[in-house]
Design brief:
- Pathway: Purine metabolism; IMP biosynthesis via de novo pathway; 5-amino-1-(5-phospho-D-ribosyl)imidazole from N(2)-formyl-N(1)-(5-phospho-D-ribosyl)glycinamide: step 1/2.
- InterPro entries: Class_I_gatase-like, PRibForGlyAmidine_synth_PurQ.
- It holds the Pfam family GATase_5.
- It catalyses: N(2)-formyl-N(1)-(5-phospho-beta-D-ribosyl)glycinamide + L-glutamine + ATP + H2O = 2-formamido-N(1)-(5-O-phospho-beta-D-ribosyl)acetamidine + L-glutamate + ADP + phosphate + H(+); L-glutamine + H2O = L-glutamate + NH4(+).
- The chain is an alpha/beta fold and 226 residues long.
- Helix 1 links the parallel strand 1 and strand 2.
- The chain has a nine-stranded mixed beta sheet with strand order 2-1-3-4-11-10-9-6-7, sandwiched between helices. A two-stranded antiparallel sheet has the order 5-8.
- Helix 1 crosses helix 5.
- It has a single domain, classed as Rossmann fold (3-Layer(aba) Sandwich).
- Helix content is 23%, strand content 25%.
Length: 226
């Protein structure tokens, strides 16, 4: 039996179906989860997808953080459940305090959509085991509130503990401090990033590469080998 990976749909999610497809292409079973349901349906991992949940009112992810499903996600993530937050999902993870720091509006005050070069800094998380530390990959990016910020103490701690998972290369698209594109928690089971790996899983779409597929093969191997 293959791994079952839940994908949460919030009001305003727009990449949930793409994420389900990426999971299926990797060989796992995607399981649709609804934001109002506390039941995670015994999934082995959860993805919070990209979009503009609740229209980004108040702050991006601020309302979704209080959805009934998030109570279960927070509880189980603290117990070791692998959780991936993509774009809006990353914003939700910071609002839920599963990841440190915050996401602010892009420093240029515009929505940005581009293919983005990233460097893999940590290949030891539940979601990055199929990458190599130092590897450069190309993943589509699209956001309005993608600027990662934290105080110096938090940033220094993330760097010292190897918890910066991805860094922007050649161009910082949103003003994120220290070019941070993605981070992980101390246990390595929760990862958040602004670029969209689910849009780089087939040569026909996205960057024309499959660099993003390794997120989903990584977690599949982690779960099947557990």
């Amino acid at each position: 039996m293959t791994a079952r990976i839940g994908v949460v749909t919030f009001p305003g999610s727009l990449d949930d179906r793409d994420t389900q497809r990426a999971i299926r292409l990797a060989g796992a079973e995607p399981v649709a989860l609804w934001h109002k349901d506390k039941d995670l349906k015994q999934v082995d991992a959860v993805v919070l997808p990209g979009g503009f949940s609740y229209g980004d009112y108040l702050r991006a992810g601020a309302i979704s953080r209080f959805s009934p499903v998030m109570g279960s996600v927070i509880e189980q993530a603290k117990a070791g459940l692998p959780v991936l937050g993509i774009c809006n999902g990353f914003q939700i993870l910071t609002e839920a305090h599963l990841l440190p720091g915050a996401m602010l509006g892009n420093d240029h005050l515009h929505f940005i959509c581009r293919d983005q070069k990233l460097r893999v800094e940590n290949a030891g998380t539940a979601w990055t085991g199929d990458y190599t530390a130092g590897q450069d990959i190309h993943i589509p990016l699209k956001n309005m509130d993608g600027r990662y910020v934290a105080d110096d103490y938090t940033l220094d701690k993330l760097e010292a503990e190897g918890r910066v998972v991805f860094r922007y290369v050649d161009f910082n698209p949103n003003g994120s401090l220290r070019d941070i594109a993605g981070i992980t928690n101390e246990a390595g089971n929760v990862v958040g990033l602004m670029p969209h790996p689910e849009h780089a899983v087939e040569p026909l779409i996205g960057t024309g590469r499959t660099d993003g597929l390794l997120f989903f093969t990584s977690i599949l191997k982690k779960l099947v080998g557990a």
